[in-house]
Structure formats: structure tokens, C-alpha cells
Amino acid sequence: MATYTPPLTPPSEPTKRLKNLEPEPIDINIPDNYVQHTLKTQKELPPITWSNWYRELQWISVLALTITPALAIYGAFTTKLTWQTGLFSVFYYYVTGLGITAGYHRLWAHRSYNASKPLQYFLALAGSGAVEGSIKWWSRGHRAHHRYTDTELDPYSAQKGFWWSHVGWMLFKPRRKPGVADVSDLSRNEVVRWQHRWYVWLILGMGFGLPTVVPGLLWGDWWGGFFYAGALRLTFVHHSTFCVNSLAHWLGETPFDDKHTPRDHVITALVTIGEGYHNFHHQFPMDYRNAIKWYQYDPTKWFIMACQWVGLASHLKTFPDNEVRKGQLTMQLKRLRETQEKLTWAPDSNDLPIVSWDSFQEQSAKRPLILIAGFIHDVASFLDEHPGGRHLLVKYIGKDATTAFFGGVYDHSNAAHNLLSMHRVGILQHGYRQSLDDKAIPPAQRLRIARYNELGSSTAVSDAETLVGEKEEKEA
Ligand SMILES: [Zn+2]
Ligand SMILES: [Zn+2]
What residue range is the signal peptide (predicted)? Predict the structure, then answer.
């Protein structure tokens, strides 16, 4: 005999973890109600106010984020910008920006592809030139941002305002620790460890040293290199990547999900080297792409693809297209549902009185009632509007005009059928097997957006008599 229960997956090999040598995932023993538990038990620093803000500053970030633009402004007024230094500054902006977007973000924080050692060292160096903290610190915060998006445990929650998510979270001491996120994989990574260890030297060398030395040695523009390729370029890299936390959670559309703040917008993409399709990114964070359409601006994706072509990157992860489209469809249906709800529809069958033939006859003597597809319609307001003339309607008062309406006299349009349904005032007892016939459902209501818990209660009544019976049984 066949076994119908599917066999359980055989137990996997117990993980061979070398105790004390390899770090354990930090979140392996967290309680099931971690978020609630932490919010309740963890102490939060008091909110920043006009009276305490100067005591709450994080001086290292404050200095880095004020001295850099100050140097850039001073340089702009005192040093002539040569075209060579100008071009190099733009080029170096992209190099260091990609260090963050392709390196810190998509490679290390999200593991969306595999990078060879040379590429990893390049990205670690380039990322250091963006002066945004070490890979390990940055990725730890970013993983918390994805795991606890928009909550108190999100280190740069967009719920706390545009400027807080842009720079405020760095300028002030965090009000609470970011939610737990494991980075044990990064602690094991040789390149990440190397960068963390030499970080101070790397930011001096890559942030200011290299951009000064290259223009200095090659075309003798030492100060131009320092001010433009160093300070001004760094100011731009800072605020462009910060826009991923601020602008990308404020500006644009939500084509994949609207549960949280992340949004898609081409402007954000343009200023962030392609990180602007942030609604997609928060839904599918392990996808190496941010933009899925070929014409959308995502140089970070193009860079990773190019690295794959030359053999420096592999295992580029993409989310199954089928699942991506489900998200899109959900959002499209939501918008259609809103449109559907704004329209006025024919009265629900369950709300209409069930009328006997005799009563229908009696009432037709007092007002113009016409029977079509089991529904009784009051056409008083429509008599003079009827394109075929008043006489054709009057002829059917107190009668069944189903055949005439559906082609016997004139095959009415869908619009006419929709309009007719708006005049429904009752249902004829034993009148019509309504759910079995398209004629009973106005064309605009045959395909509708319904929530899963609404699907049981159809607007069409299967049989007036049974329904009345059922109702009475339930009430009894
Ligand atoms: Zn985000
Ligand atoms: Zn991310």
C-alpha cells in the first residue's frame, strides 16, 4: 500500500562548528518574542531635545560630517578646479560609491553574490574611501535595518523623520541598540577582518591620501586633488549613500509591497548609483539587482554583471520572477480594489425583498416595474431616457422582458446591462436560477476584486426560495 504522508526530510548533518574558533551566530538563542521583549525590557535613552542635544552628540561622526564639507567649501573658493581633477573626482566618486553599494551593501550586508578575493580587496579599499565605518559595523546596522524596518530596533528608522534617517542617527548617540543581527559570517571573512583592523589607516589613505596623490603626481594638482577628489567627492559620496536611508524611504511608488516605507524612484536611483529601487530591494534583499528592468538606472548591478563576465564574481542571486510578479500583482489588485470601492454598485441581492408574482402584478399597477433575469426593476426615472423609446418600456411593465432585453428585441450593451442593474428593487420569488446565468450578473460585476474572506458571500443568490428557507432555519 502506498504511503500518503510524505516522508520527513532526513536530519541534516549536525553542523561541525569548531568551538571557540568560529563565532556563533549572535541571534541563535534569542527568545521567540524578541522584538516585544526587547522593546519592553531594554532601556532607551531620553529623546533628544533643545536642552540636551549638545550632550548627546557623537563627536567623531559630527566632525567627519562637518569638517569634510567645510574643507570642500574652503577649497572651492581658494583652489582652481582643473578639468583633469574634475574628471578624476567624478571617477573616484563612482569608485568609492561602488565600494559601498556593490561591496558593503550587496556583497557583504546581503551576500547577493560571491566575489573573488581580488574583487573583495578592491571593494574593501574602495568602500574605505567612502568613510562610512568598517564593513562589519556598516553591515551589522544594515541587517538590523532590514530585519526591523520602520521599528524602534531599526537604527535608521524612516518613521523618525527624513533627517533622522539621513544623518541624525549618526550625529547623535543611538537612543537604543539596533536590533540583533548576525554577522558571524563577516567575522569569519578574511577581507572584512583585515579592513576592520586597519580601518583608520585605510580611511586616511583611501579617503584623502590616494585622491590627493593621484592628481598630485600625474598632473601636479595636489591641493585640487585634496579639496575636490578628497573632500568634495567624499561629501557627495556621503550624502548620496545616506539618501538610501532617507530619500529611498520617502519618495516614489510601492510597486511590490506597501507594508513599510521603502519606495522606488528614478531620482533616488540617480543619486545613489542605482540603489533607488528600494521597494523592490526591501522585498527581495538577497537579489543582486535593485532595478529589474533593463532600462532602469542601476550601475551597481551593471558593475556586478561586468565582474561576472570577467570572472571576478559568481553566483549572482536573483529572486524567482514568478514570486516578484506576485508582489506586483498584489499591489495592482489593491489599486484596482480602491477604484472598485469608489464606484456605486447595484443593490446586493441579499438586501432586496423577495416578491411574489401576485405582489409584482399589484405593484406594477402603481409604478413602472419590469422583470428581467429574475430581478424586478423600477424604470420610472429611465422611461424618457430609454434610447429605444418610452413605448418599448411601457409595453413590458408588469411583464418579463428577459428575452426582449437580451436580444429578442435588442441585444443590449454591457453598459446598458450595468445601468439596468442600478434600478433593481426586488427579486421575484421562484423567478430565476440566478447564479447559473450570466444574465443575472451585471457585466461589471462578473470579474471583481474580492478579499479571500469575502469570497464565500457571493452577490448572486443561487435560488431565492432556498435562501429564504436557510435564513429562517438559521434564525430559528
Ligand atoms: Zn531601507
Ligand atoms: Zn539593503
Answer: none
